[in-house]
Design brief:
The protein is an alpha/beta fold. It is built from 5 helices and 7 strands, in the order βαββαβααβββα. The protein folds into 2 domains: 31-61; 64-205, Rossmann fold, CATH 3.40.50. It starts with 5 loop residues before the first strand and ends in a 7-residue tail after the last helix.
């Protein structure tokens, strides 16, 4: 049983991934006569052409989101261990994978985001919200997500994550999740819940323009 994600943002329980878009397939029955077979082939061809157009348009219209790698914060941990950063990497991987699989958002290449963050932090200052917005705009994304995984003890970790509108600077989501139990399992689970909330929030707010 998942003992995870007690948010002080609105609680999320039993969220299911939205079903893939697309009209249900209708069965095609055998017909008799050359004219019927020709009509059937024509229908199949046109169905393929028409079905491809909405999918292409949907892909092009999906709003972009840049995701910064989650950070590890062990300042208040009662003990630090070598595997702590691996927990954060696993949470980041789950967040990226969930958004990459989404039919409703377009995930900006994580390598490009990492390069941009490294360049922005070359002065020694961590990438704050203004920095994250600038990176998202630079990479053509309307949205940007960032967060921190904090360790307090081996059994209690905190995931704090935000979704920002890169165009306006508005914080659309500011979630906090208390992760209790095996951190290697619970941190990715919390990241997955956040990814679902990100997808839903972006769908509700729409794509919108991206200024250079």
């Amino acid at each position: 049983m998942l003992n995870c994600c007690t948010p002080w943002a609105p609680a999320v329980h039993g969220v299911k991934k939205a079903p893939r878009l697309g009209a249900p397939r209708r069965p095609i029955h055998d017909t008799q006569g050359e004219d019927s077979r020709v009509r059937a082939r024509s229908i199949l061809y046109l169905t393929g052409v028409l079905a491809g157009a909405p999918l292409a348009a949907q892909s092009a219209a999906r709003p972009g989101i840049a995701v910064l790698n989650l950070r590890f914060d062990g300042e208040h941990a009662n003990v630090l261990e070598a595997g702590d950063t691996a927990v954060v990497r696993a949470a980041t991987s789950r967040l990226l994978a969930a958004l990459r699989a989404s039919d409703h958002v377009r995930l900006v290449d994580s390598g490009s985001v990492a390069v941009a963050v490294a360049a922005a932090e070359a002065d020694g200052n961590p990438c704050d919200n203004a920095c994250a917005r600038a990176i998202a705009r630079q990479l053509g994304a309307r949205w940007v997500a960032k967060g921190t995984v904090s360790k307090t003890s081996n059994l209690v970790w905190i995931l704090s994550a935000q979704l920002l509108d890169a165009a306006t600077g508005r914080v659309v989501l500011a979630d906090g999740y208390e992760l209790k139990g095996d951190a290697a399992r619970m941190a990715p689970a919390g990241a997955h819940v956040f990814a679902q909330r990100v997808e839903r929030a972006i769908r509700e707010h729409g794509a919108g323009p991206v200024d250079p």
